[in-house]
Amino acid sequence: MSDMLYEAPGTLRAALALLSGANGKARVMAGGTDLLIQMRSGRIEPELLVDIKHIPDLRAIALKRGGFQFGSAVTCMELIEHEAFARAWPGVIDGVKLIGSIQVKGRATVGGNVCNASPAADSVPALIAAGALARIVGPDGKRDVPVEDIPTGPGKTSLASGEIVVSFILPKRLPRSGDAYLRFIPRTEMDIAVVGAGVNLTLDRRGFCTLARVSLGAVAERALLVSEAAAALVGTKVDDAALRQLAAAASAACRPIDDKRGTKEFRFKVAGVLARRAAEIALQRAGRKN
Ligand SMILES: Cc1cc2nc3c(=O)[nH]c(=O)nc-3n(C[C@H](O)[C@H](O)[C@H](O)COP(=O)(O)OP(=O)(O)OC[C@H]3O[C@@H](n4cnc5c(N)ncnc54)[C@H](O)[C@@H]3O)c2cc1C
Q1: Distance 211 CA to ligand 1 centre (A)
Q2: How many domains does one find in the chain?
Q3: Choosing a second label site near 282 at 20 to 30 A (CA), which of 38, 73, 196, 276?
Q4: End-to-end alpha-carbon separation of the chain, Å?
Q5: Strand 224-225 versus strand 209-217 pairing type
Q6: E strand or H helix at 272, and its extent?
Q7: What would the pLDDT profile of 240-253 be if each residue is shown by its tens digit?
Q8: Could you tell me the distance, in angstroms and rounded to a whole number, from the CA of residue 132 to the centre of ligand 1?
Q9: Which residue's CA is the nearest one to ligand 1's atom 8?
């Protein structure tokens, strides 16, 4: 490995200046739980690491205009331990809790999980189902982008050179809403999802579904927002017929690969099963008094 500089700026402005001065040869570092492994194996050789963990604005979790906003340097553990956030978005927490061990979660961030762009990243389908936006700041200013538009393929994102994800913005939680994320792995823990499914839904007073979002991970080159699966729920009481349609639509949306963790056929089937089970948990959570 050639010489490399490490910087830990205390402001976003300083971080942006460092990145823009490095002509694309720098990497943002949050927890480093993906980045350091990629550097050790020689997959990437950045000339500059810009550690964003010392920027106070990027470490906050707050309610803004009724919705939660959390900084991209907030660790998974900090998010899990935030009671109000966990109450509002238990499905996002389902995904975040699955990221590695306790030690990994103490360093890793949701921002890193999204920007690392693994198709199997566990927080990503949950965030997509939640309708989360990522706030991005870069040399050309600020923009808010739906999370589903950030990873574009394995290890690739739509971020331009010099851009940083600074926070995630979740919509105001409506009454009678619930979300859930489930993944299938061949082992009991610390493995990569063969399929992941996130479902978020809202019911009206009579129990009819008025809003739904469904997302699948590990069944395509990036996590997918599956509108057809969500449409199977809206207008129904999320009964057996609706859940069957949801499962069929989820399976139909997959464009998986065969790999050592699972065959295409297995992924098609499991996507339907997991989407259905996640919807059942989301339904149960929506029925609880929040
Ligand atoms: C033992 C182990 C088990 C794991 N298990 C799981 C698992 O079960 N599920 C799972 O999904 N992941 C798992 N991971 C992967 C990893 O921990 C997660 O992807 C984690 O969320 C990455 O976050 P980080 O803050 O460490 O990212 P980093 O390693 O700091 O960064 C990852 C990438 O994102 C970029 N980046 C980071 N933050 C930003 C930002 N704010 N703006 C722009 N770019 C940014 C970096 O430049 C880098 O390319 C595991 C890792 C280990 C080591």
Answers
A1: 30
A2: 3
A3: 73
A4: 52
A5: antiparallel
A6: helix 264-287
A7: 999 999 999 999 99
A8: 18
A9: 99
The CATH number for 11's domain is 3.30.43
Q: Is the CB of 197 under 6 A from ligand 1?
A: no
For tokens 């306790």, the residue is 102
Is ligand 1 within 6 A of the CB of residue 124?
Answer: no
Identify the residue whose C-alpha is closest to ligand 1 atom 28.
32
What is the number of residues in the chain?
Answer: 290
112 CA to centre of ligand 1 in angstroms = 4
Picking from 47, 13, 45, 15, the residue whose alpha carbon sits closest to that of residue 30 is 15
Place of tokens 């950045």: 46
Measured in whole angstroms, the distance separating CA 194 from the mean position of its chain's CA atoms is 16
Q: What's 132's domain CATH number?
A: 3.30.465.10
For residue 212, what are its two tokens? Answer: 């739904």
The pTM (predicted TM-score) of the whole model is 0.97
* Span from the CA of 174 to the centroid of ligand 1 (angstroms): 30
In terms of domains, do 44 and 70 share one?
A: no
Residue with the larger pLDDT of the pair 128 and 190: 128
Q: Is 48 in the pocket of ligand 1 (CB under 6 A)?
A: no
Give the ligand 1 atom nearest the CA of 164.
Answer: 42
CB 113 less than 6 A from any atom of ligand 1: yes
Q: Which pLDDT tens digit goes with each residue over 154-201?
A: 999 999 999 999 999 999 999 999 999 999 888 777 778 889 999 999
Asked whether 281 and 183 are in contact (CB, 8 A), the reply is no
